[in-house]
Amino acid sequence: MVEPQxxxxxxxxxxxxxxxxxxxxxxxxxxxxxxxxxLIILFGVLxxxxxxxxxxxxxxxxxxxxxxxxxxxxxPESKVHSNYENDFYYRYPSFQDVHVMIFxxxxxxxxxxxxxxxxxxxxxxLIAAFSLQWATLMQGFFHGxxxxxxxxxxxxxxxxxxxxxxxxxxxxxxxxxxxPVQMLVMAVFEVTLFAINEFILLSILGAxxxxxSMTIHTFGAYFGLTVTRVLYRPNLDKSKHKNCSVYHxxxxxxxxxxxxxxxxPSFNSAITAHGDDQHRTAMNTYYSLAACTLATYGxSAITAHxxxxxMVHIQNxxxxxxxxxxxxxxxxxxxxxxxxxxxxxxxxxxxxYKYLSPIMEEKLKIQDTCGVHNLHGMPGVLGAxxxxxxxxxxxxxxxxxxxxxxxxxxxxxxITASYQGVRQAISLAVTLGMALxxxxxxGFLLKLPIYGAPPDTICFEDNIYWEVPGDEEEAHQDKASVxxxxxxRLNA
Amino acid sequence: MVEPQxxxxxxxxxxxxxxxxxxxxxxxxxxxxxxxxxLIILFGVLxxxxxxxxxxxxxxxxxxxxxxxxxxxxxPESKVHSNYENDFYYRYPSFQDVHVMIFxxxxxxxxxxxxxxxxxxxxxxLIAAFSLQWATLMQGFFHGxxxxxxxxxxxxxxxxxxxxxxxxxxxxxxxxxxxPVQMLVMAVFEVTLFAINEFILLSILGAxxxxxSMTIHTFGAYFGLTVTRVLYRPNLDKSKHKNCSVYHxxxxxxxxxxxxxxxxPSFNSAITAHGDDQHRTAMNTYYSLAACTLATYGxSAITAHxxxxxMVHIQNxxxxxxxxxxxxxxxxxxxxxxxxxxxxxxxxxxxxYKYLSPIMEEKLKIQDTCGVHNLHGMPGVLGAxxxxxxxxxxxxxxxxxxxxxxxxxxxxxxITASYQGVRQAISLAVTLGMALxxxxxxGFLLKLPIYGAPPDTICFEDNIYWEVPGDEEEAHQDKASVxxxxxxRLNA
Amino acid sequence: MVEPQxxxxxxxxxxxxxxxxxxxxxxxxxxxxxxxxxLIILFGVLxxxxxxxxxxxxxxxxxxxxxxxxxxxxxPESKVHSNYENDFYYRYPSFQDVHVMIFxxxxxxxxxxxxxxxxxxxxxxLIAAFSLQWATLMQGFFHGxxxxxxxxxxxxxxxxxxxxxxxxxxxxxxxxxxxPVQMLVMAVFEVTLFAINEFILLSILGAxxxxxSMTIHTFGAYFGLTVTRVLYRPNLDKSKHKNCSVYHxxxxxxxxxxxxxxxxPSFNSAITAHGDDQHRTAMNTYYSLAACTLATYGxSAITAHxxxxxMVHIQNxxxxxxxxxxxxxxxxxxxxxxxxxxxxxxxxxxxxYKYLSPIMEEKLKIQDTCGVHNLHGMPGVLGAxxxxxxxxxxxxxxxxxxxxxxxxxxxxxxITASYQGVRQAISLAVTLGMALxxxxxxGFLLKLPIYGAPPDTICFEDNIYWEVPGDEEEAHQDKASVxxxxxxRLNA
Lengths: 492, 492, 492
Known about the structure:
The structure is a homotrimer.
Chain A (H helix, E strand, L loop, with lengths): L8 H4 L14 H20 E3 L5 H10 L23 H22 L7 H27 L6 E3 L1 H21 L5 H25 L8 H18 L16 H23 L6 H27 L8 H6 L3 H5 L10 H29 L8 H21 L3 H4 L3 H4 L1 H4 L5 H31 L24 H20 L1
Parallel strand pairs in A: 1-2
Helix pairs in contact in A: 2-5, 4-5, 4-6, 4-9, 5-6, 5-7, 6-7, 6-8, 7-8, 7-18, 8-14, 8-18, 9-10, 10-13, 13-14, 14-18
C-alpha cells in the first residue's frame, strides 16, 4: 500500500505556513457533495437519452425508417436503415479527441509550474468533471427542451466539453492563486454565462462559431483576465520563485501542448455538419497550426537577445493557429488562407508573450499566469475577425449547395453574406461584453475571503492543498540516513 | 549511441545485493522464447482471419451481399453492399482506446512507485504483449471454433485486450514484489481461468457483462489479492521506503489515470451491440466517471486530518465509476442513475484506500501494492450488483425492440427479467469462486523459489532487473568531478 | 507570467561556451519565415480541396450520386448517397493515430537524452510542421495534378505525415549534433527525394508498400545514416557524458515508445484499401508487434552479462515488428506469419543495438544516436524482403476477388505474382540507392559551416538553442538561499 512520504520540514519550512484558512477539510467536500447531489437531482428530473441513445426510440427509428426527430445532423438523411447510421460513429471519434484536449491537453500544459503540477492536472480534472455535467444542463436548457426534458447524445457531450474548455482557459489566467473551491464556484457561474452567450450568438444572432474562437476562446480568456484583475495580488512577487518551470516540468507541459496541437482539427470540426464540412474544418485547422508553428519558432528566436528559444512560446503560441481558425474553419477558407491565418496568429501570440504580458501585468495589474491573453484572447479575436470577413465574402459560386450547411440563412436567401459578416462582428462584441461584465461580477464574488485561497507568499505551491511526497533527492538523503542509522545500530 | 550510466555505487549500495537468484539472463529469455514459439505454432495450426479480414471471404460477402456468417454484429444487417460496412470501422476506434488504456493507462498508473517506473511500464508492456496473444487462443477456443479454426477480427482483439486487463489488475496487487518470469507464468494461468470464467458467465449462464465489472475487475482483483496473500512477505517493511511516490512519479502516474478515465466510455462500449447500445454505454460511463471524480475529491479531503488531497485517491478512486458501470453500462441505467452509481463508487473507493487497505494488510496479511481491492474489487462487486438490479427491472416498456440487443433471452420470452437478475448474481458468485480458488492454486505455483523473485529487502526496486541510469543529480555531480579532474589535469 | 530561471552558472559553466556561431537569432527566423512564405505562395497557386472537402464539389457529388472522381478509394463505390460516405469517416481515425506517432511517438521517444529533451520534442515538432506542408506539395506534384492543381484531402494528410516520418527517422540518426536550421534544410531535400522515390516505387515500378518498410523506414534510416557519416565528429566523445539517459528521461521516452507501438496498426493500414485490407493490415501489425516484444525482452536479458534489461532495447527494438510488416501487412501474411516476422525483427534489432552499432561507430564512423539502423534500417530491409516473398506467392486461391485491392496488376493478369515479387525487390534496391546517394549529397550540403551547428564538446545539450530553466535541486538551493537572505534581513 502506498504511503506518501511527508514533505521534509527542512526544505518546505516556508510552505508549511498553511493555516486553518486554506484547510480544505470541510470546504471542499461540502461543495463537491452539494454540487454533485444537485446535479444528480436535476439530471433525474430533466435529462433523458435522445433517440440515438434510447433503446426503444432508436429501434423505433430503425423499424420505421424515419429520422425526422434528428437534431443537428446537417444534411437530413431520409431514412435510417441500419445501426451503422447511428450518430455515434460519426461524432464519437472526434469527441474522444476533444476529451483528450480537455483532460490531458489543458491539464498537462499547465504543469509547467515547478511546484504546481498536482494542482494543475488535479484541479483541471476536478473543474472539468464538474463543468461538463453542469454544462450539459445549462446548454440543454438553452438548446431547447422537448416535452420539458433535455435530450442528450454524443453531440451534447462534445458541447459540454467545449463549455468546459472556456472554464479551463479562465483557470489558466488565475492558475496558482486560487483554491479549488473558488474554481468550482467560478465554474458554476461561468458555465451559465457561457451557455447564455452561446445561445445569443448561435440561436439569436445566427452567427457561426464551430470551433469557438468567440464562444470558447475569446469568452474564456477575457472572463478569466477580468477575474484575475479583480483578484489582483499586490505581493505576488513573494511567490515569484515558484512561478516558473524546471527542466522536467517543461517536458510534462509539452505532453499537453502536443496533444492539443494534434487534436485541434478534431476540436474545430467536432460539431460541424457531416460530410465535407467536418473534412474541410479538420484540414483548415491542420494547415493553420503547421504554419503557426513555423512562425512561433522564428519569432521566439528573433525576440531573444541570445536567439534562444523560449519554451513558453513553443508550449503556447504554437497553438494559436487552432484558435484563430475556430470560426472560419468550416468555411471555404482555402488551405493557403488557413496558413496565412495561422502564421499571423503565431506572430501575434509570441509578441504578446514577449512584450504585452509584462506590460499588462505592470500597467493593468493583470497577473495572467498562463498568458491566456496571448493564446486564447488575441487569437480568439483574430479568429472572430477572420470568420466575419470570410463569411462576408461567401457566395453560391464558392459553396454551391454546401452553403446551407455553413450559412443556412444566406443559402435560403433570408440575408446576404455581408450581413452574416455583420452578425459575426456583433457576436464578437457581445462575447467581449458578456466576458468582461460577467468577469467583474464573478470576480468580486470570488474575492470573498471564504474560499481558502492561498496568501500571496505561498501561491504556485501544491503543498497547500495536497499531500506532497519528497523529491528523489530527499529520498536519496533519507535513504542515506536510514543506512547510516542501520550501520550505527549494527556497530553499537 | 546511447550508453547508460551505471548506477552510482554510493547511493545504490544496498540495492546491489542482487544475487544469482534474481539474474534473468537465462530465465527470462527461456520463458519468452518458449512461450512465443508455442504461440506461433498454435496460431499456425488453429488461427485464421475471419470473413471481415480475409481477402477472399470478404470479397465473396461483398459480391454475394450476404452477411450471414457474421458473428457478434448485434442487429443482423441483411446485406453487405460496400467496404464501408466492414466491422473494422465500427469497432476499431473503440479498440484503439482500449489499447491505450491497457498499455498507457495501466502502465503509467503504476509508475507512482519512485524506483519502479521501468518495471511498471516495462513489465506491464511484456505481460500485455504475451497475454493478448494467449487470450486470443483461449477465448477463441471457448467462443467457438468453426471447422476446427479460431477466426479472428477486431472484436477478438478487443476481447484479448479485456482479458489482458484482468491480468494487469492482478499485477497491480503484487506490484514490486515479483519477477517478470513469475508474471508470465501467472498470465498463462490467469488468462486460461479468465476465458473459462467468461465462458461460464456469458455462454452458459447467459449473463451480460459488457464492460467486465465481473469478468475483468472482480475476477482480476480477487485473483490478484489471493495471489498476493499466498505470496505474503513478512519483512516487506524493509522495502517500505521505496513503496511510495516522489513528486514527478506522481505526475507520470496521472498520465495513466487521465487516459484511463477518458477512454473508459470506449472500454465499456467496445463490444456492445452496434447502434444505440454503444452510444448509450459510452454516455453512462462518462457520467458515472464525472460524478465519481467529484465524490473522490470530496472524500479525499474530508478523510485527511489536514484536509489535503491524497494523490493515491485521485489517481485511483476517481476511476471507480468506470468499473462500477461495467455491467450496467449497456442497460437503460439513465444518466442520473449512472451518476449515482459513480458517486457511490468514488466514496467506497476512497474509504477503502484510507481505512480498509491498512486493515487488510495488518489483519489479513494482504499486501495490495496498488490497492486494487479499492479500485477493481469493491467497485467490481458494486458493478455486478448494479447490473443485477438493473437487469431485474428491465421491461419491454423501457427497452422497446432494443431489448433483444441487451437481454436477448428476456426479449424472446425464454426467461423473465427477474431471472436475468438472478443469473447476474450467480455470475458474481461464480466469478468470486473462480478468482479465489484459482488465485490459491496459482499463488502456490508462484511460491516456488525458481522464478528469481526479489528478497523482502529489495522490493519496489528497478535495479534488480534493469540497467538503471543515474539521476540528474548524480549526473551533475559526475559532471562536476569530470570538470574538476580536467582542471587538475590542466593545472598539472 | 512565467519567467524561466536562468541556468545556474555553477553547474552549466561548460555549456555556456555557446558562441555567435550557434546563435539562432537571425538564422532560424530567416529560414522559418522564408520557408513558410514560400509554402503559402505555392499553396495559394497550386493547392485546392478535393471533392470530398470542397463544399460545392461534395454536394454536387451527393446530388448527382456519382463518385467517379474519387482517387484512392480502393473498391470503387458506385453512388454516394449520404454525408456518411465521405472518406473522412473512413480515414480520419487512422490519420489521428499516425499524427500521434509522428508528434508524440517520435518526439518523446527521443527524449531519452538527459539534457536534450527540449530539442528532441521541440525540433521534432518544428521539422514535422514544416515537412508535412512541403510533402503535401511534393507528393501532390508526383501523385498527379488535375487541371494544374494539387487536390488535397485526408489521404494527402496521411501521406504527408508518412513522408515526415522518414525525415524524423533521419533526425534520429543525427540527434544531438545538429542545429534546427540544418534540420530544416535537410527536410527540404529529403522530402523531395522521398517523393521521387515513392513515385518511382509505387507509380513506375508498381510496387506495394502500404506501411512504408521501404519508402519510409529503409529510406529514412539509410539516408540519415549516410548524412551522419558525412557529418562525422571525431571528438564526439567529449560530449559522451550527455549522450545517455537518466531515470526520468527514460520514462518520458517510454511515452513515445508505447504510443508508437499501440498505433502502428493504424499507421500500416492508414492508406490501404477500404474494407478487409485495412482490417487485415491492422491485425497483422498487432500480432507482429506482440511477438516482437516477447523477443526483445528475451534478447535484452540474454545479451546482458548480468541479465538486466536495457531500456534502449525496450524503447526501440520492441517496435521493429511494426517496421517489418510495413510492406506485407496488407497481404495475406496470416496471423502466425506476422508473428514470425515480428519475432525475427525483435531479435535482429536487439543484436543490432548490442553488437552492430558499436562496430558501425568504431569501424564505419557512423555515429547513430538513436540506433535507427537497428529499428528502421535492418527491419525495413527485412520488411521489404518479407513483402517481396509474400507477393511472389500470392494467388487467386488465397486472395479471391480481393486480389485487385492488393495486387491490381496481378489480378488483371498483366504480370505474375513472381514478377510482383521482383518489382518489390527492385524497389528495395532503388530505395537504398536513392537514400545513399541522396544522403551523400545532402550530407555535404549540411557540412557547410553556416548553420550554427554545435561544436563536438557541447553536443546533446539543450542549452545551446533553448532558454533552459534550472532543475528542482537548484531551485531548492535557490530557495534555501532566499530564505537565508530573508532571515538575515529580518535579523539585521
